[in-house]
Design a protein that fits this description.
The protein is α/β, with parallel strands linked by helices and about 250 residues long. The chain has one domain (about 5-50, about 110-250): Phosphatidylinositol (PI) phosphodiesterase (TIM Barrel), CATH 3.20.20. About 30% of the residues lie in helices and about 20% in strands. The chain contains 9 helices and 9 strands. The protein has helices at about 30, 85-90, 95-100, 110-120, 135-150, 165-170, 190-195, 210-220, 230-240; strands at about 10-15, 40-45, 55, 120-125, 155-160, 175-180, 200-205, 220-225, 245. The chain has an 8-stranded parallel barrel, surrounded by 5 helices. Strand 1, helix 1 and strand 2 (about 40-45) form a beta-alpha-beta unit. Helix 5 packs across helix 6. The longest helix is centred in the middle third of the chain and has 14 residues, at about 135-150. It starts with 11 loop residues before the first strand and ends in a 6-residue tail after the last strand. The mean pLDDT is about 95.
Length: about 250
């Protein structure tokens, strides 16, 4: 198994933050519900204050945890993830907001073990943490865990902070990387991506059109579009040549 094997395929379905329509996003329950329902899973990672790589989308904790209900943390606003230690993050509930059922924190180590055990692929989006940690610290922390778990062949790295991507390539050149873009393509798109040494381009739906997709595919880039919860739109994108879509609702596909 190697993530690169997907690059020659189209019609791929990616579970956006896991099966987040039926389970709390970015939790083990969401990953478990994605098994046999997608081609790869997407998760978001960032660092705790003590440098542990944890799975979390938002910069702050209030939307998807019970942090606001915890007496110990009443004076910790704005509840930045990077202001909490791993021990503190482990004390929170990551599922109650969704359906009332307790769900513990998911770490990158646990997510990597899960995909290895279930023979699945994982798109690891590295959240922009440049206001809290150096780029070197962020990238090294994430890549070290992938190496420690011997999961290099199962993952792809992506980020909106493009400064991370050349660092990923420098340290682990065989792992594919993807530039994430929202609302506006970079100037001179193809030369820009070549300079980043990326293998893939993930753009939001509003940017996807036939000409851009064809140009990217002709230059050998893997192309994905987010977040697609309409099967008809997915069909249109695949007809353009898009390799994969990120979706919140796996049951649609």
């Amino acid at each position: 198994m190697n993530f690169g094997e997907l690059f020659n395929r189209t019609g791929l379905i990616a579970a956006h933050r896991g099966a987040r329509s039926i389970a709390p996003e970015n939790t083990l329950r969401a990953l478990s519900a994605s098994v046999a329902e997608c081609d790869f899973i997407e998760i978001d990672v960032q660092l705790s204050s003590d440098g542990v790589v944890i799975v979390m989308h938002d910069d702050t904790l209030e939307r998807t945890t019970n942090v606001c209900e915890m007496e110990n943390y009443k004076n910790r606003e704005p509840y930045n993830v990077s202001d909490f230690t791993l021990k503190e993050l482990l004390s929170l509930d990551y599922g109650g907001w969704f359906d009332g059922k307790f769900e513990p924190l998911l770490t990158l180590t646990q997510a990597l073990r899960f995909v290895k055990e279930n023979m699945m692929f994982l798109n690891i989006e590295i959240k922009d943490m440049n206001h809290f940690f150096s780029d070197e610290k962020v990238v090294s922390s994430v890549l070290q865990e992938v190496e420690d778990l011997h999961a290099q062949e199962l993952v792809m790295f992506s980020s909106f902070r493009h400064e991370y991507l050349p660092l990923c390539k420098e340290k682990l050149p065989d792992i594919p990387t993807a530039a994430l873009i929202e609302n506006l393509h970079p100037d001179d798109l193809i030369p820009y991506l070549i300079a980043l040494h990326v293998n893939a381009y993930h753009m939001n739906d509003e940017l996807a059109d036939k000409e851009t997709v064809q140009q990217l595919r002709d230059e050998g880039f893997f192309v994905s579009v987010y977040t697609i919860n309409d099967p008809l739109r997915a069909k249109e994108l695949f007809a353009m040549g898009v390799n994969g879509i990120f979706t919140d609702i796996l049951s649609l596909y």
